[in-house]
Amino acid sequence: MPPPPEPSAEAASARDAERWFRSRGLPFFAHPGSRGTLLVARTAPVIALLCCVELAGSLLQRTSISIDARAPLPGAVVLVAMALGLLVLVAIPAAALLAAGTWLREWPRSTTTAGWVLIVYDVVVAPWVVGHPFALLDHLAAGLSVALALLATRLGVGSLASWTMRSAIRQLRALPQLASRALPLLMLVVVVSFFSRNLWEVVNALPAVRLAGVVWVFALLGLLFIVPVTRTELIGLGNAADATPELSRLERVNVTVVLVLAQSLQVVIFSGLVCVFFTGLGSIAFTPAVLDVWLGPGRAPLELAGVRLPVDAALVKTAVFLSCVSSLNFLISATTTASYRSAFYDPLFDDAKKALAVRAHYRWAVRLETGQRIVAERE
């Protein structure tokens, strides 16, 4: 057996390595017996999110806002305040999910206690708060939600979700690199189409549901391309890293999902960047008179949650469609073009290579600890 690689600071012990795996969205790299460790504490942020969502839903059901056209300011202020309140309700558990690793490492008992308090609140107290104190079905539904949250955490869904949020933040930090390196060249492929009247007519005729279907088709095409490529790259990566022992099926699925999610986040952020660019370009380049000639008068503005925005709906539809085309092109270029691959694709697999090295040391440490325990029992 080859000597294990030098452990990193994160993997100085088996428990540290298990935390390290979970923080990277790789819970199945840890020993199966450790998946129930601090289960309630690890589920606490998810239960907090459930409580906040239930409270937000109750507030939305009980609140009705009308904006007077003659004096819109008071209603608009109330609407903005309510939106900020709902944002805070979602942001608090999201921040807790991001900080859960630190809390578990520093205050495991306190975090476990907080988790039990949240469980009692969600199952027993929350139905009273939302106005259904004697509804048995509400208590049962809350209990079922908590049970599913605990099961999902044990299966590693919580680790994957928290890693996805952290990865999204890291990808947003790379936004300047996307804008400076990927956007200009890839835009040349579709920018001519943006000034095509035929494209505007076709996309404008699509209802929102059909446009969403088109977006899902592009997403499916991207997955059909990237999943086989990732699996092939992972086989070569495992051979190069001398993964000992060989990755199990669950471990292979786990690392594949993480890599596909990381690349998907890159594509989603790039798609949003392209959509914003085209929306801004269209607002400057196309006057209402031009769009009236192309699409006819009486076009509706973009409307979100009942609020009309000062943006043409046809412009946003066209921007969304072209962002999907650009994103598929970006995904293919990121895996085949050398300059894009070194900037956006290879760093993801460098992280996977490090995870395989930590796993090799972790498995060696677990076997060593097991052997020492057996010897001690025999003595």
UniProtKB/TrEMBL annotation:
RNA-binding listed as a keyword: no
Taxonomic superkingdom: Bacteria
Transmembrane region(s): 76-101, 136-157, 178-196, 208-227, 267-291, 311-332
Keywords, alphabetical: Membrane, Transmembrane, Transmembrane helix
Claim: Oxidoreductase is one of the keywords in the record: no
Coiled-coil blocks: none
Protein name listed in UniProt: Integral membrane protein
Lineage: Bacteria, Bacillati, Actinomycetota, Actinomycetes, Micrococcales
